């Protein structure tokens, strides 16, 4: 069922809830791949009904060119979503009608890492996700761990704003060579695609060094050098952070922290395509 207006979706969800059924939401911006579909499969396991939203949200793009070139493959996306009970595909005017003048902002967590390089991105993301939660009245929402900072920000504002929804994190799906699945991967040239797995390999090697006792600053410096030599330029950030707060850890030994409490996060450009990834330490 394809739904493009809010009233129809709300009526549909109301019927489900009156029947005692739970609703799961998988928010996407389309250009779907197996990573997205894994979220839908998980939603099917945990909810009676599944809504997948497809909306390229303009307010989370700080670069107009990035918005203009973001892949839009609606017909192909719909064909992949046989497991969904409803596919919500609103227009920009539906989500941001005339006079819209509000936003959701999470302080501190949005100012580092991605936020430092994409001003306003997380405000736009938090606002549209909050709207989707309100529109769908979903009981559970599913997000991938590849966008780790986004996931922590969503958890934060859900808690802070007392939004009644359960956030489920799903593991990052990877290609056979380790590259995290992403809609952006299709923009890589064949040469860049061959180099791209080095991003994950570098994270793995760095995590192993940190577990072995290499000082954080030394391990990160070596990793940045390795990425630059491989062709990643620029490396926007490569950080060792506390997993939930995203606080950067510097000049200490990762071994001082509980196993699994730290995360390595990276963003780097390859062939003018910006890639992100993260792994647990």
UniProtKB/TrEMBL annotation:
Compartments it resides in: Cytoplasm
Name of this chain's protein: Pantothenate synthetase
Enzyme class: ligase
Family: Belongs to the pantothenate synthetase family.
Keywords: ATP-binding, Cytoplasm, Ligase, Nucleotide-binding, Pantothenate biosynthesis
Catalytic residue positions: 36 (proton donor)
CDD domains referenced in this protein's UniProt entry, alphabetically: PanC
Pathway: Cofactor biosynthesis; (R)-pantothenate biosynthesis; (R)-pantothenate from (R)-pantoate and beta-alanine: step 1/1
Function: Catalyzes the condensation of pantoate with beta-alanine in an ATP-dependent reaction via a pantoyl-adenylate intermediate.
Location (main, coarse): cytoplasm
Keyword Repressor on entry: no
EC number: 6.3.2.1
Binding-site residues, ATP: 29-36, 144-147, 173, 181-184
Catalytic activity: (R)-pantoate + beta-alanine + ATP = (R)-pantothenate + AMP + diphosphate + H(+)
Misc: The reaction proceeds by a bi uni uni bi ping pong mechanism.
UniProt GO BP: pantothenate biosynthetic process
Binding site for beta-alanine: 60
One cellular component (GO) term of this entry: cytosol
Oligomeric and partner information: Homodimer.
GO molecular function, one term: pantoate-beta-alanine ligase activity
Residues that bind (R)-pantoate: 60, 150
């Amino acid at each position: 069922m394809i739904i493009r207006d809010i009233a129809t979706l709300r009526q549909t969800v109301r019927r489900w809830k009156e029947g005692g059924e739970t609703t799961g939401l998988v928010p996407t911006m389309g250009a779907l791949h197996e990573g997205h579909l894994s979220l839908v499969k998980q939603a099917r396991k945990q909810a009676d009904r599944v809504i997948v939203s497809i909306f390229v949200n303009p307010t989370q793009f700080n670069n107009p060119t990035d918005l203009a070139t973001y892949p839009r493959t609606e017909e192909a996306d719909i064909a992949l979503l046989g497991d969904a009970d409803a596919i919500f595909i609103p227009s920009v005017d539906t989500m941001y009608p005339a006079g819209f003048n509000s936003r959701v902002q999470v302080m501190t967590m949005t100012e580092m890492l991605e936020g430092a390089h994409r001003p306003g991105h997380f405000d736009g993301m938090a606002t549209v996700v909050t709207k989707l939660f309100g529109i769908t009245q979903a009981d559970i929402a599913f997000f991938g761990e590849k966008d780790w900072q986004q996931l922590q920000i969503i958890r934060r504002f859900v808690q802070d704003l007392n939004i009644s929804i359960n956030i489920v994190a799903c593991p990052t799906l990877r290609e056979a060579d380790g590259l995290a699945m992403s809609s952006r991967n299709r923009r890589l040239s064949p040469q860049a695609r061959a180099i791209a797995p080095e991003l994950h390999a570098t994270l793995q090697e760095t995590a192993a060094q940190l577990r072995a006792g290499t000082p954080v600053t030394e391990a990160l410096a070596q990793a940045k050098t390795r990425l630059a030599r491989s062709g990643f330029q620029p490396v926007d950030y490569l950080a060792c952070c506390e997993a939930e707060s995203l606080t950067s850890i510097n000049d200490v030994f990762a071994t001082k922290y509980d196993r699994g409490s730290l995360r390595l996060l990276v963003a780097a450009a390859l062939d003018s395509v910006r890639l992100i990834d993260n792994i647990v330490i």
